[in-house]
Amino acid sequence: MDFIEANGVGLRCELSGSGDHTLVLVHEMGGSLESWDDVAPRFAKSRRVLRYDTRGAGLSQKVRGELTLDTMADDIAALLDHFGIAGKVALAGVAVGGAIALHFATRYKERTSAVAVGSPATGIAAERRAAALERLARIEAAGVASAIEDSMLNGYAPELRGDIARFERFRTRWLGNDPSSYATIWRMLAAADMQDELARLACPVLVIGGSLDRVRPPPLAESVAKAIPGARYVEIRTGHYMAVQAPDLLSDCIDEFLRSVDA
User: Fold this and answer.
1) Which of 37, 81, 171, 233 is 20 to 30 A from 143 via CA?
2) CB–CB of 263/256 below 8 Å?
3) Domains in the chain: how many in total?
4) For residues 19 and 48, is the Cβ–Cβ distance under 8 A?
């Protein structure tokens, strides 16, 4: 693991693997680079794999005030510059990480070869925004523990808790989130409107829906795919936190997609 200062913020990151191609992994809201623990090693056998704690998450610098997707995309560019990674990279992201990856592809099209996203959180519907903002206000006031049961029920379906140790480890890590940073990232999502930029994406895109995702059910994921010219859509048996819940299925989807792009 490395701790570096990039784009004016301290970020925790890890670059592993080797090869001519680079894959950047962007975790979900409330997650950290550990979300990719069972995915990253599979790709590091043939690619360079860069994963990191987004600003405000994990052990990266916490955030206050306003945050934008532009800043999140610029953090990735700064990390690539720090490690001397030139040329185009592929990105994979889950939930808000998917939105960051897609935004990077529009903001840095010359640096993007392909994007794979799981249940991408590209915004919050107008009719759900007030309730979402009310919920995050409670989180800021009472801490993330006040939202843990609801978040796990909707994001980590009971059907996926066969490996109870994996679930408990994820749940406990989620409790470590900084409430104010979590709320800042959520407000960024609430302010996002990516519809126009999705229609301008020019690189190959794979959108993955989770059949047991109650946070962003498959129809929402599929609607993102339909908004992107030429995007592919697949659905796998997983929930919202798919890199943790179904690393094998997710890795296979991403690997098959990237191999077709590389070819």
Assistant:
1) 37
2) no
3) 1
4) yes
Give alpha helix (H) positions in the chain: 40-44, 69-82, 96-107, 126-142, 148-155, 164-174, 179-191, 195-198, 218-227, 242-245, 247-262
Query: What SS3 class is residue 208?
Result: strand
The radius of gyration computed from the CA coordinates of the chain, to the nearest angstrom, equals: 17
Q: What pLDDT is recorded for position 75?
A: 98
Burial class (CB within 10 angstroms; exposed 0-12, middle 13-18, buried 19+) of 259? exposed
Determine the structural domain holding residue 188 and report its residue range.
2-262
Chain Cα centroid distance, residue 23: 13
pTM of the model: 0.97
Please state the rounded mean pLDDT for residues 230-249: 98
pLDDT digits (tens, 9 = 90+) for 83-139: 999 999 999 999 999 999 999 999 999 999 999 999 999 988 888 888 888 888 899
Tokens 């903002």 sit on residue: 133
For residue 117, give both structure tokens: 């996203």
**pLDDT number for residue 127:** 83
Measure the CA–CA gap between 189 and 68, rounded to whole angstroms.
8
CB 194 within 8 A of CB 98: no
Per-residue pLDDT reduced to its tens digit, 135-179: 888 999 999 999 999 999 999 999 999 999 999 999 999 999 999
Tens of pLDDT, residue by residue over 3-13, are 999 999 999 99
CB 99 within 8 A of CB 93: yes
CATH number of the domain where residue 109 is located:
3.40.50.1820
At residue 129, the 3 state secondary structure works out as helix
- Distance from first CA to last CA of the chain, Å, rounded? 31
Are the C-beta atoms of residues 206 and 234 closer than 8 Å to each other? Answer: yes
